[in-house]
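#data-curation
PF: Archiving a pair of folding outputs for the training set. Convention for this channel: one message per protein, sequence first, structure tokens after, nothing in between. First:
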Amino acid sequence: TDRTYWENRGSKKTVAIADQLLEIAKEHDPDLELKYNKFYIGIAKKGLPNNFVVFRPKKGFIRFEPRLKKSIEIQERLESAGLDVMDYDSRWGRYRIRLQPGDVEKNKEILTEIIAEAYNVSNER
């Protein structure tokens, strides 16, 4: 799979949201890049996966899934920021957040914090 596959499966607008979120993640590590997989778009560093966040583009939105321990504090922060929090995926340890075009700009501060937390947790392992 490649970028075109995801632009067709989702849309160019929703794949562009993954680009915006990658730019935020690159603040922690400039070597990060998108890795296009069959079921999601992950993040890799020098070709090796580091999926502290994954993206699942759909036609009208993208599902942003940071890997974080479930906590009331994080849940409340996400919801009070006005983000569309879907559910928590206990199997993979990920929050599922629905982002529409324009949401990254509106919620850059909280998204930057969440990406930083997921990145830091992934590098503690």
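PF: Second:
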Amino acid sequence: MARIYLIEGPVGAGKSTFAASLATRIDRGVHIALDEWFTKLFSPDRPSTDLMPWYIERKARLLDHIWKHVQSLLAGGVVPILELGLVQRHSREDIYKRARNVEVDLTVYLLQASREVRRARVLRRNVERGPTFSMLVPTPFFELASDVWEEPDEVEMAENRIEIVSTEGLAHPGIPADRGG
């Protein structure tokens, strides 16, 4: 059965590093990061005011486009590793449903770290602009994104294959060597 990996967690939890590391360990794994696509496609048009409605509408369109791309990758035997920034349950439920509808095995890694650790990572990433940097995350945006993050509850955890991964003590939260599929 075809497989998709979904990497989720609050901003700064280590999703990009984890997903990139997983892609190197999965045969024919390809990391698809929504933020990277979003930045390249839409940043030149970013408004100075009313950012959230602008962002939400474009993210919805981009998720639809990424899903079409995922289906093409699956048809070619590629294993998509999705980092989509689905901060609310209803957004994750949409991906769960899409995967069920095309009869794809979906494995979800939920990355967790304290707000303090995540804030420090984001501040460092903003300055260093290393391999996981796709956009500047100002402190107010970090706080807003952290406030709206909806942790999966017991029902969501029970209905989906979700593995919790703590990245709390990791400077660069890649996937441990004993994981990967």
